[in-house]
Amino acid sequence: MSDKDLRINEQIRVREVRLIREEGEEQQGIVATSDALLIAKEQGLDLVEVAPNAVPPVVKIMDYGKYKFENEKKVRDSRKKQKLLKLKEIRMQPKIDDHDLDFKSRHVKEFLREGNKVKVTIRFRGREMAHTELGLDVLNDVLARIEGDYSMDKAPSMEGRFMSMVLSPKSKK
Questions:
Q1: Which of 122, 76, 74 is nearest to 100 (CA)?
Q2: Domain around 13
Q3: How far is CA 115 from each of CA 91, 110, 144, 153, rounded to the nearest angstrom?
Q4: Predicted TM-score (pTM) of this structure
Q5: Angle, nearest 10°, between helix axes 98-113 and 132-146?
Q6: Domain end: 80, 105, 137, which one?
Q7: What pLDDT score does 172 carry?
Q8: Disulfide engineering: 61 pairs with which of 22, 70, 116, 126, CB 3.0-4.6 Å?
């Protein structure tokens, strides 16, 4: 349940509520809403509805501002721990020199080591379209040069004038 759904203090419009004290999980029992509100005001805290669907609804005496801050902090921390995967693309042509292929393969390896997905694309121009097997050979050569540091998400396939495959880093368990 999000913070926006919680009703606090005067927003609680039922006759009776089940009250839980702030100190712990000790229940006060079923009391009139007005009495629960008075107890909360005496302690300088808020009355927060934590289980609105229960009969009667469950309310807890707590510092609502502090509670809200703690929840936002948890959400921020969980976002920090998320790993964003980027898709990097390496483009080449079927007529590629050994040194260039080596250079591009090193980049593919580096991207995979950083934890990014890599799309390796071969672009065919003009008459090269008649010899797509050359592009497949280049992609297989790239795979041989990066030596098993990857798992293949998408096998080499033709898309118009391009042949591409998608690699992702091996998951670390």
A1: 122
A2: 3-80
A3: 19, 9, 19, 14
A4: 0.53
A5: 50
A6: 80
A7: 59
A8: 22
Work out the angle at residue 54's Cα, subtended by the Cα atoms of residues 51 and 59, and round it to the nearest 5 degrees.
40
- 9: domain CATH number is 3.10.20.80
pLDDT of residue 138: 92
pLDDT score of 173 = 46
Selection from 155, 166, 173 nearest residue 116 by Cα = 166
Number of C-beta neighbours around residue 173 at 10 A: 3
Cβ partners under 8 Å of residue 158, min gap 6? 132
Task: Answer positive or negative: Cα dihedral of 6, 11, 16, 22.
Answer: positive
Per-residue pLDDT, 100: 94
Pair 58, 107 in one domain? no
Low-confidence ranges of the chain (pLDDT < 50): 173
